[in-house]
Amino acid sequence: MDLLNKVAVVTGSAHRLGRQIAHSLAEHGCHLMVHFHQAAEEARKTTAELREFGVEAFCIQADLSQRRGILRLFEAVDKEFGRVDVLVNSAAILRPSPLLEVDEEDWDQTISLNLKGAFFCLQAAAQRMKKQGEGSIINISDVIGHKPWNQFPVHSISKIGLEMLTKLAALSLAPNIRVNAIAPGLIMKPQGMDDARWEKLAEQSPARRSGTPTEITQAVIFLLKNDYVNGEILVVDGGLSLT
Asked: In Å, what is the CA distance from 100 to each residue of 15, 145, 155, 183?
């Protein structure tokens, strides 16, 4: 896919990794719909930054854990652009809670955003892409879905579900719509984790370091541009999942 003048939707793109992905897409000539839930100030700042690349960019608030929020997002895309060529499902929450302490609220909030929200965003984007005749979708997974961490059981379940969605959708939507996923490793320290714990995890990986957002955005661009890659889960973790 040639990214110049394509329209991209990146969920959770007001800050953190989603913001970095949006920046990279803008650098390659994509017009952007910046999605946020609560980070309104960050979303406005990110949108202004994207416009400096000479592309069109708008932001929209939506709760993607609710179907009406997803409809709100894609109605905004229809209004501003009239099409969508790229969807990056990046919005997610990461809640530490040991297995025996997980309550119904933990479960519902994590699954509703990380899996249900991604599913219906994919569905909404694919419906539009099918009418256009082409499109590409990338789901942001997590190596926690491959290498379970005791502190994040529901997150692990949501991400392995997202990877099955990736494969099912790739098969169902081929050949004109491609669906792939990226499973990052230690890229951005989770909120609430102390620096010592993060540095210890990084040192224990084969790469002996944490990764950078750029290493994820490079993977995003590769998957979008290579039209012969479909249904793949690209692990970008410095070998962490091997240990």
From this structure: 32, 19, 14, 26
Residue 174, token pair as written in the block: 């081929």
Number of domains forming the structure of the chain: 1
pTM (2 d.p.): 0.96
| pLDDT at residue number 114 | 98
- By the 8 A CB rule, do 60 and 72 touch? yes
Do the domain assignments include residue 2? no
Is residue 114 in some structural domain?
Answer: yes
Grouping H, G, I as helix, E, B as strand and the rest as coil, residue 221 is: helix
Q: What are phi and psi of 15, to 5 degrees?
A: -155, 180
d(CA 176, CA 11): 22
CATH number at residue 44: 3.40.50.720
Banded pLDDT at 204 (limits 50, 70, 90): confident
Task: State pLDDT tens for residues 17-71.
Answer: 999 999 999 999 999 999 999 999 999 999 999 999 999 999 999 999 999 999 9
CB-based contacts of 73, cutoff 8 Å, min separation 6: 9, 11, 33, 35, 60, 62, 64, 121, 124
Q: Which domain holds residue 74?
A: 7-242
Q: Is 3:224 a contact under the CB 8 Å cutoff?
A: yes
Order of all β-strands in the sheet with 86-89: 57-61, 31-36, 7-10, 86-89, 135-140, 177-184, 233-236
Asked whether residue 1 is domain-assigned, the answer is: no
pLDDT above 80 for 73: yes
